[in-house]
Amino acid sequence: MRNKPTKKYQYEYPRAALTVDIVVFALDEEDLKVMLIERSLKPYQGQWALPGGFVHVDETLDHAARRELLEETGLKDIFLEQLFTFGELERDPRERIVTVAYYALVNLEGHDVQASTDASNAAWFSLSELPELAFDHATILKAAHERLRGKVRYQPIGFELLPEKFTLRQLQHMYEVILDRELDKRNFRKKVLGMEIVQETDEIEKDVAHRAARLYRFDQKAYQRLSKQGFHFEI
Amino acid sequence: MRNKPTKKYQYEYPRAALTVDIVVFALDEEDLKVMLIERSLKPYQGQWALPGGFVHVDETLDHAARRELLEETGLKDIFLEQLFTFGELERDPRERIVTVAYYALVNLEGHDVQASTDASNAAWFSLSELPELAFDHATILKAAHERLRGKVRYQPIGFELLPEKFTLRQLQHMYEVILDRELDKRNFRKKVLGMEIVQETDEIEKDVAHRAARLYRFDQKAYQRLSKQGFHFEI
DNA sequence: TACCATAGTGTCGATAATACACTTAGAAAG
DNA sequence: CTTTCTAAGTGTATTATCGACACTATGGTA
Description:
Helix content of chain A: 25-40%
Number of strands of chain A: 11
Strand content of chain A: 25-35%
Oligomer: homodimer
Mean pLDDT of chain A: 94
Number of helices of chain A: 5
């Protein structure tokens, strides 16, 4: 049995609880995926939800997001950025809870999703086949998706969804999935190679049943150099 | 004398306090202004700070921002948008306080800034002549300024800084101040009028010592119609 | 009536965006 | 080993957009 909680932290005015929730995006051959957790506790027990949890009073928001992500999904060292803070009154049935939402980008190949430590399920869902989500997490997910769509065009964050070395075909496919429109192969290559922010490697892809494509990597240094010179990334 | 506070709100775990802070921008003939409040209470007593305050447990974040703005500056019914949530550990010397920052845009002509209700000063400061700010408010202000610069180019929010009816000269000046670069008059007019989101009125400006310019207004309906058709505003 | 300040207007060249189809390489199947 | 299949890789011509640039018109002030 659980002990009765000792409510020893006392304040003059009532306080909302503060949580973080993280929308983790990944990409596979078909489309965008998002990581969800099956809740093992009430409320919304058994329903799918975004990974997240309470912010400790002695940690920053970013720290809380990374900690929860590690605890619940095993993911670490990934791209993570604050999205928006959701503070509607009835968003949690228990009490007033304000949540700082984050979104994260991972490449599926580099990061295994481990069974979470508290025995609840973690799984990838296609954005087109989402289950019903707990709390206001559908709203948060939608906001994250819109942010990603908007930001990927003028900031080179999309590379976070790809392995370190990728083909131009993979890069184009990533943009096509996120922007939800087809791009012309020749124009796309012309543009990307013209920006000089991807570096050709001397490797080609392996284990494909057709001509193997050359592998490239994102050139962070070149990008930063160009940025300082007023260069403006845009797809 | 103030009574000793009765700390009757009790929780199992310690909780951060939650505040809102608002960066209010306005525009005059010269440059961008921001509204600051002179603090009447400790900490940072007598220093300038952003308007803001504690979020009540029974109000949304947006509501808290609008309420604080009204209480401290008299401003209401203005453009207000969430900016970012700041949660560094030592950002407030008293205790752990997380703040949800907002930014707001007002036109100086339409809104008088009243003396604030709790007798502290409220005043406009030019962005180039800022005093030292309390807490991490300089960081928040910088983030708001960057957001405004980034967003004004592809969302028609800049009109919020102008009176309902404005000249194309005022519109261009607004963009020049925010983007911090000069724009070509003919190209600017061509672009703005070509987008068909400003509506010509039959009025001209008054009390100017030279040829009076035609007044225009932002056409919200036309903008929404165009947006749905995939039109992409950009200056 | 002259002067001053800003309003208002068009063209041309450069650059960027778009549309579009075939050859090549390499693995797999027969 | 020859054919087949799949995706890689490549260039040009057209169109649209961007950016540079200078003079006349209007109305108030001196």
